[in-house]
Amino acid sequence: MTVRRFPIASRIWLLALALTLAATVGRHLRHNRDSVRPVILGWDNGHYFAWARSVAVDGDADFDNDFRFLAAMPGGGENAQAFAQIFARGDRTPAGRPPNKYGIGLGLLAMPLVFVARGAVAAYEGVSGVEVSRFAAIYNVAFIAASVMLAYAGLAVAFRVLALRFGRRPAGMAVAAVALGTPLGHYIWFAPTMAHAAAFACTTAAVAVALWWREALDRGAAPGLVAWRAALAGAACGFAATVRYPCMVIALVPAAFGLSHLLAGLCPAGRRVAAVGVSLAAGLAGAALGFLPQLIAWKCVYGSWVVYSYAGVSLSPWPVHGLKVLFSPRVGLFYWTPLALLAVGGLVWAVVAARERLLAAAMLLVLGATLWVYGGWEDWGLGSTFGMRGFVDVSLCFMVGVAFLGSRAAHAPVRARVLTGLLAVLAVGNIWLMLAYKAGVIPAAGPLDVRQVLSQPGKILRKARGELRFERHLFGRKFPLFTPADTLPGDDPELAVRRPSAP
Asked: Per-residue pLDDT tens for 84-131?
């Protein structure tokens, strides 16, 4: 009897997942004498988490107590001040609730683990007799773990998609290079409570399902099967947009596949038109169903089914800030992430070389649409950000470009070594930038000054040593998972704020 060996790629994936969970959860729970309890910090982060905690723990979508809790946090600093301003300004939606302009998708995806945490809390209270806070650390840990696991699921799906088209070695090279050499790594390792890692997982899943639908379409499968797969692809695209609204651009992938089939002449024209028509109807229905949770969320919080939740921030129909998005020291994609430029070159080459031309062209369309969205956005710099984080959501596009380059170099040893070396250098450079950013060498909102980053190696290396101390992540002094209900600021914090005086 032969024993099947566990593939090396799977072992690496599991080890990396375990290390990332140990680091992210351990870092969050690490005892800090300046804090009274672990809290999910950050404006965006707090809003994303509020969706999961409020619905799963409180059973509502009213964030009043969530935001008061953050605003009243002792030692909360700028984060507490930012949330206190919600009450100082009297921010309320027409439904009388504090607004939450961010998508509900990550909250929904994290909710199963948050419900598990809620069950653990009930069991602990029953055994110990200690009342546990509705904002206990275990809920934060569930949210963080869900985001990390979603990111690694996205990496696994990306590897599968690429391996089927370019081979396992180029696929592994591409996934590792983009995970380590672009901002994707930062939003998995350092900032999993942002929605970017989950958005990457969802857009990658949407592309995988779209490819599955395309396979049925091109081989002339039964209309019912084609319609079913089209509906799933549409649902995946629609749900991705609930995680982060700009993820709607991923719908360009099935759109490109459908148009290509319509023009390809693989079967009689009438049959092609019928198949694409059925797919379009099913895909739109699926997209509506996938986006339905966001419509319900808006109705609960804002009182309307459709809302522009970013009121006060304009979106131009033209990418007037496009060059800044690509080249600015503030967040420029190619300035911060030269690997992205290499990957785009790989996509262009793939289109010219006709190797997976359609997939590469669809990836270029998605990147172009992403540039159009953020180039037209008034707040194109996206506040505090490591690199151009808007493109993290569609990181699969870069993986496709790198995988194509890897497949072209696979049978030329010299080219393969040069490409591997170049990707390694770019990955190490990006890791150095991530550590510099977390060490405060790079300001939270940029810009990136390369000379400053190179001039403070000691500070950056100290940060690196701290991140690699897994014994501290695992066994260092920690805050309790089951935070007692009487821990400040309490479960029903009273927040005294001063409203701005009338002019």
From this structure: 999 999 999 999 999 999 999 999 999 999 999 999 999 999 999 999
- For residue 39, give the DSSP letter: -
Query: Distance (Å, rounded) from C-alpha 20 to C-alpha 14?
Result: 10
Percent of the chain's residues with pLDDT above 70: 97
Alpha helices in 40-136 (DSSP H): 43-53, 64-71, 77-88, 105-128
Instruction: Write out the two tokens for 30.
Output: 């690490």
Each domain of the chain, given as residue ranges in start order, spans: 18-141, 167-182+316-476
Q: Is 278 helix (H, G, I), strand (E, B) or coil?
A: helix
DSSP secondary structure of 189-249: HT-TTSSHHHHHHHHHHHHHHHHHHHHHHHTT--HHHHHHHHHHHHHHHHHHHHH-GGGGG
CA distance 364 to 371: 10
Which of 200, 210, 214, 105 lies closest to 158, judged by CA?
200
What are 433-450's pLDDT values in tens digits? 999 999 999 999 889 999
**Rounded distance, CA 308 to CA 99, Å?**
11
Cβ-based neighbours of 215, under 8 Å, separated by 6 or more: none
pTM above 0.85, yes or no: yes
Q: How far apart are the C-alpha atoms of 78 and 250, rounded to whole Å?
A: 35
Sign of the alpha-carbon dihedral angle for 179, 182, 184, 189: positive
Contact 21, 267 (CB under 8 A): no
Q: What is the CA radius of gyration of the chain?
A: 24
Where are the alpha helices (H) located in 379-412, listed in sequence order?
396-409
Tell me the three state secondary structure of residue 187. Answer: helix
Contact 367, 253 (CB under 8 A): no
CA atoms within 13 A on the CB side of 137: 20
Q: Identify whether the C-beta of residue 106 lies closer than 8 Å to the C-beta of residue 112.
A: no
